[in-house]
Design goal:
This protein has 10 helices and 16 strands. By secondary structure, it is α+β, with helices and mostly antiparallel strands. The longest helix is centred in the C-terminal third of the chain and has 24 residues, at 355-378. The two termini are 23 Å apart.
């Protein structure tokens, strides 16, 4: 509830925000990883959204649900790539922002109901044009399936969260640890996966448990000096499936100094030896091992050209796509350490432009974290996640606890009842 002594304040404009933000960042020039420092920003510089609610890979969940439709190994890799190119639409369609830092024991859960009709242009190998498959635009036709999502902040130092994605009807799951490393160069922020972030691990139960590892490229948050934040990628990432012995290399190309950004990328899908995986550059892939080549813009249309053909086929068109809305638990069934409820007072204060009050509430949360961490240290007590078996283990592939599995089943069925945790946001 608004306090009587905290009237609305004037909201800073974007240029003023960036100037303040830049002034704070300058203190961290030379710091190896500013993400591990978890510096606290004043409320007026924050997006009023919890980190766990903001960070996920399901901006277009229908592309995730469609993985595994193809009877062809190349087709399934292309389905994985289609999901990959849609997972972070928020950065393409919106501006970068800084959500709240997550607290230890905080968690978030949600779901999406999507259709899986195949567009005519989605001509992937091993998927017949009249069958059910992946839609680049959820047009409401086709079979409805549910995609469920659960994430929990499992470590504070370093800041790490575990996540689990599930589409039970399709037998498709994904999991991983989210952790970023960030370094301020003086003109931009370089964001890379942290040591516990080995990528997204996608498993296809109905394809003999094929597993795909999708590694993240480094990115740069630029535009700090000119007052217009933007994200650029000029790095290489990899997607591999040891069972099918099919691998993809994607290279995000750096735009020149002059002209409009093209956000170009190129890639290759090829046969590889999982026991001797030494190829890291597109140019080093033997021509005889190439299955298909990828070209296009990760802000627009992306094409694939199978070996033996000359005409590129459309894999996906990003242009008309926007992030899809989540289905959330009812307010009355959310726990006190569930992201949206945990940060609700801070969010309300920011939305109402009561920035001083929002900063005060945020600092109280941060101080409470420090006190509880000190109490655990004094009592030699090890904190354990509620829904995952380890804070940062098993390496790269978090496992659900028995309670975590029940929560995921509850998300599928719409049963959100849970007992309050004694952690309560730690």
């Amino acid at each position: 509830m608004p306090s009587v002594d905290s009237p609305p304040e004037k909201a800073p404009d974007d240029s003023s925000k960036l100037k303040t933000f830049l002034g704070i960042l300058r203190k961290f020039v030379g710091v190896t990883d500013i993400a591990s420092v978890r510096f606290s920003l004043p409320a007026q510089l924050l997006e009023p959204r919890p980190n766990l609610e903001y960070w996920h890979y399901l901006d277009r969940p229908e592309t995730f649900a469609s993985i595994g439709k193809s009877d062809d190994e190349l087709g399934r890799m292309l389905e994985v790539l289609r999901f990959w190119f849609t997972k972070d639409l928020k950065y393409i369609k919106g501006k970068p922002c800084k959500p709240y830092n997550s607290t230890l024991g905080e968690f978030f859960r949600c779901s999406w109901d999507v259709s899986d009709a195949v567009p005519e242009e989605a001509n992937l190998p091993g998927v017949s044009s009249g069958s059910s498959g992946a839609s680049t635009v959820d047009d409401g036709t086709g079979e409805r399936v549910k995609v469920s999502y659960l994430t929990e902040q499992t470590s504070h130092h370093p800041p790490v969260s575990a996540f689990y994605i599930d589409c039970a009807e399709r037998g498709v799951t994904a999991r991983g640890f989210d952790q970023i490393s960030a370094k301020f160069t003086g003109t931009s922020i370089r964001v890379s996966p942290g040591q516990h972030n080995l990528g997204i691990f996608v498993t296809l139960e109905k394809r003999d448990n094929e597993e795909y590892q999708l590694t993240h490229p480094s990115a740069h948050l630029g535009g700090l000096l000119r007052g217009a934040l933007s994200i650029t990628v000029s790095d290489t990432c990899y997607i591999n499936c040891p069972k099918t012995k099919v691998k993809a290399i994607l290279q995000y190309l750096e735009d020149g100094w002059l002209g409009r950004s093209q956000y170009r990328l190129q890639g290759v899908i090829f046969r590889y030896d999982p026991d001797n995986d030494t190829i890291t550059n597109i140019k080093d892939v033997p021509e005889g091992d190439v299955l298909a080549r990828i070209t296009g813009s990760w802000h627009g249309k992306i094409y694939f050209t199978p070996t033996g053909t000359k005409e590129p086929s459309l894999l996906i068109d990003i242009t008309p796509l926007c992030p899809m809305a989540k289905i959330l638990p009812p307010d009355e069934e959310q726990l006190s350490n569930e992201s949206l409820k945990f940060w609700s007072d801070v969010t309300s204060a920011i939305v109402d432009k009561r920035f001083t009050q929002a900063t005060k509430l945020k600092q109280e949360i941060e101080e409470r974290q420090r006190q509880r961490a000190a109490e655990r240290k004094e009592e030699n007590e090890e904190w354990k996640p509620r829904f995952f078996t380890g804070a940062v283990t098993p390496l790269g592939k978090p496992e659900l606890t028995e309670e975590g599995q029940k929560v995921l089943e509850g998300i599928r069925s719409g049963n959100y009842a849970l007992e309050e945790s004694d952690v309560q946001g730690a």
